[in-house]
Amino acid sequence: MSLTRRTAAELGELMAAGEVSAVEVTQAHLDRIAEVDGKVGAFLHVAAEAALEQARSVDARRAAGEALGPLAGVPIAHKDVFTTKDMPTTAGSKILEGYRPPYDATVTARLREAGLVILGKTNLDEFAMGSSTENSAYGPSHNPWDLGRIPGGSSGGSSAAVASYQAPLSTGTDTGGSIRQPAAVTGIVGMKPTYGGSSRYGLIAFASSLDTPGPFARTVLDAALLHEAFSGHDVMDSTSIHAEVPPVVEAARHGDVAGLRVGVVRELSGEGYQPGVLARFQEAVDLLESLGAKVTEVSCPSFTYALPAYYLIAPSECSSNLARFDGMRYGLRVGDDGTRSAEEVMALTRAAGFGAEVKRRIMLGTYALSSGYYDAYYGSAQKVRTLISRDFEAAFHQVDVLISPTTPTTAFPIGERADDPMAMYLADLCTIPANLAGNAAISVPCGLADEDGLPAGLQIMAPVLGDDRCYRVGAAVEKAFQDRWGGPLLKEAPAL
Ligand code: GLN
């Protein structure tokens, strides 16, 4: 079997057994990138030389008898919103074109410590704002199932890279759904850890109370291995949780739902959902029951207000976070010809450097936070946020996990929602509640919708620090579906 078709766990074992070198594994993935990324557009930057160098060092350490972790030598695609000191970091924005950070994000540093080989940086919606990668200043990425469709967003380069076998693993960030939604529409696994379970240090901020780094992979076990490699307490992030990483790898190895209480969220289905997505979801519900889970319907009434609350809170935080991009410190500077004031240069730089969606959110957020409107908008949204957390708490008294479709539709055509922000925002209807409450949530593939043959995702939500439950249930579902499908859902990247 070609090295690019292997899972990360298999590659780790092959390298540990000396059957293949990290350089060979890396070269196979660089060759795949050269072969298909012209069509997919997953990468903004491919770091071939640095990757081979890292692979050589892993091989040398192994040859010297050093004990290495399970992912040493495994290639990974890294979302271009994490700082990397040896590669450009753009956050998908013109305002950071050519920016080379002087430091590594904690996630980046931990990938390197685990011996993972960073192949390059992946495309995203500008500053992670979007659900399709169409808001990237560098053009969209394409879904490997159908190149005319979106690979989800904002981490769409990362989902497309894994779904097209350019990398077995990738990183993402999930503020409102940006890992789970792209995973669902490309037929792979994507996990949003508990907020504060993975470090935000060196992650270019969008909405700081929501941003959460997490893994993409083609299997639940691979996602867990990556989750474990970069998560855990970090003194550099004041919101990092002081607790052990939940036993995610153990859980992924022992998928089991017998006796588990599963709640179907009543508010996350019905009108506006694609019939094929609902049909696959119902099959997953039946499957869980057949595996011994006790499935009941649970009502979380405040979830209905999650989307509007999110679109006040996230833009408010972004308007504050993005104030630092002023053309004075780093990145783009426009109009500095000696005749203009600093304020004029700032205005010209921001006008030229930010795209339409980013400007829309900065204006929305500035308005929501302005004196006289603060209580009516931002204050109310924060109250809704509390109600959503209470809904989760009440639900988790009745059940162990909650489930829903990950996203209401399969991958939509590129361009279809590009000029309709409200339609774009609906892609995150089911994922946003877990962000507002800080819970753990995963998306695993649950089949192909009948009407278009495109992947649908099952979302499994667990309490704060219950990340292992997501993996335990995800692994059970994955195994049962694979038995039924006769192998993984993603057997080939169909459009390539
Ligand atoms: N699509 C949502 C937004 O545009 C979520 C983005 C994200 O999770 N980074 O805000």
From TrEMBL:
The record lists the catalysed reaction(s) as:
L-glutamyl-tRNA(Gln) + L-glutamine + ATP + H2O = L-glutaminyl-tRNA(Gln) + L-glutamate + ADP + phosphate + H(+)
State the top-level EC class: ligase
Q: Which domain of life is it from?
A: Bacteria
Q: Where is this region: Disordered?
A: 133-153
Q: Name one GO molecular function term.
A: ATP binding
Q: Where is the Amidase domain?
A: 24-470
Any GO BP: translation
Provide the alphabetized UniProt keywords: ATP-binding, Ligase, Nucleotide-binding, Protein biosynthesis, Transferase
As recorded in UniProt, its EC number(s) are 6.3.5.7
What cellular component terms from Gene Ontology apply here? glutamyl-tRNA(Gln) amidotransferase complex
Q: Any idea which residues are catalytic in this one?
A: 79, 154, 178
What the entry lists under InterPro entries is as follows: Amidase, Amidase_CS, Amidase_dom, AS_sf, GatA
Quaternary data: Heterotrimer of A, B and C subunits.
Q: Which NCBIfam families match?
A: gatA
Function, please? Allows the formation of correctly charged Gln-tRNA(Gln) through the transamidation of misacylated Glu-tRNA(Gln) in organisms which lack glutaminyl-tRNA synthetase. The reaction takes place in the presence of glutamine and ATP through an activated gamma-phospho-Glu-tRNA(Gln).
Similarity-based family? Belongs to the amidase family. GatA subfamily.
Q: What is this protein called?
A: Glutamyl-tRNA(Gln) amidotransferase subunit A
Q: What is the lineage of its organism?
A: Bacteria, Bacillati, Actinomycetota, Actinomycetes, Streptosporangiales
